[in-house]
Amino acid sequence: MSQAPAQQDIYHLDKARVRASFDRAANTYDAAAVMQKLVREEMLNRLDLVNMQPKRILDAGCGTGHASQALMQKYPKTQVISLDLAMGMLHKAQSMSTSFTQRIKQGLGLSKQRLLCADIEQLPLADGSLDMVWSNLAIQWCNDLDAAFTDMHRVLRTDGLLMFSTLGPDTLKELRAASSVDEAHVHVSRFIDMHDIGDALVRAGFAAPVLDVERITLTYDDVIAVMRDLKSIGAHNAADGRSRGLQGRGFLKQLTEKYERFRKDGKLPATFEVVYGHAWKPAARPKTKIDLGAGFAPVTFHGKK
Prior knowledge:
Blueprint: H1 7-10, H2 15-25, H3 29-32, H4 34-47, E1 56-60, H5 66-74, E2 79-84, H6 87-97, H7 100-107, E3 113-117, E4 130-136, H8 145-155, E5 156-167, H9 173-178, H10 194-204, E6 207-220, H11 223-232, H12 249-259, E7 268-280, E8 300-303
Parallel strand pairs: 1-2, 1-4, 2-3, 4-5, 6-8
Antiparallel strand pairs: 5-7, 6-7
Helix pairs in contact: 8-10
């Protein structure tokens, strides 16, 4: 008798599907990425409080390249490495970098952007080669967060900064509840709790991480509009436990009926729990150990509703 797959197995992400989804979404991403823009602007505002002049920054999961452009404008003398798993996204990032202003800079030999197609969990970069790792809403596509943070720690120089945002477990809670009509398959990815993210940062060797959370709610006219936006930004269900066939009309009808319970003021909400974090690479690995039994971790958290 075959055993049911473990939870981590059914939620394991198919990276080939993730790559293909973002490749297809490259041309529609910017028009639908409202939440990504809000989070990027918040991260840039937070960076104003950091006193540093980095020489080399990694934009890990750069998408269409808006953050890379903003970082180059903020730090004109800095080289920005724009990394993404999907070549389609890098092509869009490249076209953005060849705007009129960027063409002039390239003609003068001043272009500081480099494009790199790679996985965040396996960075093809030298040890201690970066001053900052920036990642906006990308690490939720990692299967092994410990591996990702350990590699980011490896490529940072001493006193280098990791600054990131990701999604917490309340993300798309309405869609998750509505899709429970089919309990045999995974319909919404699993997202990691802020406290577990903090623990992973400490295990990777980062010093005194600071994390906080906010919730952003987008509203839609109907369920189809929710699904269309997710498709436009490449946020397809890539979990191994997903249904491999087409969902029938019966499933969509039941999904719609269950989602309707969340309608308020004539609109359907889609909640995104956004986790912001930053941490530094210390000169020596922190001596503090995590007592998992007591639930203790030397991490600062700030809650924001």
